[in-house]
Amino acid sequence: MTAQPAAHVMWTPDPIRQRLADHTVEDVLHLPDDAPRVELRDGVMIVVPSPTIGHQNIGNLLWFWLRQHAPDTFESVTAVGVAMGLRDSLEPDVLLIRQPVTLTNHFVLPSQVVVAVEVVSPGTRRRDGLEKPAEYAAARIPHYWRIEQDPIHVFAYDLVGNQYEPVADSDTELVLSAPFDIRLPISEITP
Length: 191
Prior knowledge:
CATH class of the largest domain: Alpha Beta
Low-confidence stretches: none
Protein name: Putative restriction endonuclease domain-containing protein
Helix content: 10-25%
Oligomer: single chain
InterPro entries: Nuclease_put_TT1808, Restrct_endonuc-II-like, Uma2
Number of domains: 2
Shape: globular
Mean pLDDT: 92
Domain Putative restriction endonuclease: 25-179
CATH topology of the largest domain: tt1808, chain A
Strand content: 25-35%
CATH architecture of the largest domain: Alpha-Beta Complex
Number of helices: 4
Largest sheet: 6 strands, mixed
Structural class: alpha+beta
Strand order of the largest sheet: 3-6-8-9-10-11
Number of strands: 13
């Protein structure tokens, strides 16, 4: 009789710790390589849905545009979380963060974030449009952009007091004066 290789079991959050809601950002940092992306909400791990190709293309094109046009004091990144607290984290689609950046970080602090960007998908509409902006605002992130798909339309918000106020929206060219002078042709982030 020959030994059969053990079947690979996909990672899932520990159900006991999920019920206790005692996961921390440190736990997320130590997830195995095959674990899905997760956000922490009050110590509970929430699996982040895998983005579609179109969703990723929009985010990647925006990352590239920001990389080319943002001043050297900023860095554009994707697939990096924001540690909102010890028991809370978010996974925006694109971030514009302040330099200097430690290239080995999996998370940044809200104080490093200049713009948080969410590309909205049907399954993330409520979270990206209502819940996350409130969390970003509470963390004092100065700018939030929401990108709707099909057709692509960018909505930009600035933090005023404790909430975001709309400052621009466009399906042709996004024009902003903060965090730097921006003239973003929407065609350049359209796959």
